[in-house]
Backbone:
């Protein structure tokens, strides 16, 4: 990867790392797993960046890769995940600690979300990020109508989980 693309990628990743933290929070239960998933998503984004054409927004593209990485890693439930070494420190990229205290009001919602399947979690996550149904459909690779139907079913399911 040339130096310009490298710098561009690092700047975008630094600017949008909170979206990766949110994906990690959704699919992990402890800090170590969160950091591991954050690193793996960052590496997958890095590996895929030369193919990023800009047809979609960087955030939409990053959500898709982040969610796909999280879903595939945690479906495998294996500890022997091949990774690539990358030295982000030479680019002045800093891992910002995820402040769990700021998210306390969402604790019950996250507990309810843990009871959803992987695709349902991804759909709710994008919905909570104020993505419209067209963006959600594009990110998840489903139709807009399917995204709307699934979201209505998930809302009903969450209401039952939160108010048994």
Residues:
């Amino acid at each position: 990867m040339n130096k310009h693309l490298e710098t561009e990628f690092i700047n975008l990743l630094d600017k949008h790392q909170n979206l990766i933290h949110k994906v990690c929070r959704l699919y992990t239960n402890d800090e170590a797993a969160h950091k591991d998933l954050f690193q793996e998503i960052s590496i997958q984004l890095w590996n895929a960046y030369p193919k990023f054409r800009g047809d979609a927004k960087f955030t939409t593209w990053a959500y898709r890769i982040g969610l796909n990485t999280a879903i595939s890693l945690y479906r495998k439930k294996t500890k022997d995940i091949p990774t690539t070494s990358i030295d982000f420190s030479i680019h002045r990229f800093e891992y910002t600690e995820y402040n769990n205290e700021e998210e306390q009001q969402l604790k019950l919602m996250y507990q309810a979300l843990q009871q959803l399947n992987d695709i349902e979690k991804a759909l709710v996550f994008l919905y909570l990020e104020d993505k419209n149904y067209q963006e959600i459909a594009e990110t998840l690779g489903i139709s807009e109508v399917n995204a709307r139907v699934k979201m209505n079913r998930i809302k009903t399911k969450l209401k039952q989980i939160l108010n048994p």
Notes: The chain has two domains: 1-98, 99-164. The longest helix spans residues 58-76. The chain is about 65% helix and 0% strand. The mean pLDDT is 79.
